[in-house]
Amino acid sequence: MKFKYNLLNLTERAEDLSGLEVIRYVYGYDGLKNRAISGAGIEYVYLGSLIYMGFAQSLNPESIVFPEGRIAFSGQVPQTYYHLTDHLGSVRTILSSDGSVRERNGYYPLRCPSFPQRLSPTGTKPLQIQRQRIAAKLETITKNRWCNFEN
């Protein structure tokens, strides 16, 4: 992916490696995002907490964001989703209006989800992942220590 930025250092467009536009953003003078236009022609228009989606001139409401979550217009009946946050404001759980859990995001100290049992693709023996390359550094997963220094 290639990213191009405007004078305010905001992402103006993203292109794939062949140069085709994936998405383009339009901002107001104050730096707030007004529009997002995908390479396929789908357009998102942001008006405060209202988000509209559509093609060309036909825009339909996509969602409304409010402090405790959002209302999504995906079908005939709007769906309300509530966000449960931690002490820093990061969304940890998304609940639907009937109280069922739609998504749960845990805290990952090693920047990736951890699974209690890691099996090989055949499902017969455990995978032993000892090291993972993160931002040009090696880190042991079991000890959470850096193995080499950044130059």
How does the SSE layout of this entry go?
Elements: E1 2-5, E2 11-15, E3 21-27, E4 33-38, E5 42-47, E6 50-55, E7 58-66, E8 69-72, E9 79-85, E10 91-96, E11 101-104, E12 131-134, E13 137-140, E14 145-146
Antiparallel strand pairs: 1-2, 2-3, 3-4, 4-5, 5-6, 6-7, 7-8, 8-9, 9-10, 10-11, 12-13, 13-14
Class based on secondary structure composition and strand pairing: mainly beta
Order of helices and strands: EEEEEEEEEEEEEE
Helix percent band: under 10%
Strand content: over 45%
Number of extended strands: 14
Number of H- or I-type helical stretches: 0
- Biggest sheet descriptor: 11 strands, antiparallel
The general outline is globular
Overview of this structure, please?
- By secondary structure, the protein is mainly beta.
- The protein folds into 3 domains: 1-63; 67-107, no CATH class; 110-151, no CATH class.
- 0% of the residues lie in helices and 49% in strands.
- The chain has no helices and 14 strands.
- It has strands at 2-5, 11-15, 21-27, 33-38, 42-47, 50-55, 58-66, 69-72, 79-85, 91-96, 101-104, 131-134, 137-140, 145-146.
- Strands 1-2-3-4-5-6-7-8-9-10-11 form an 11-stranded antiparallel beta sheet, with no helix packed on it.
- Mean pLDDT is 78; it is low at 116-142.
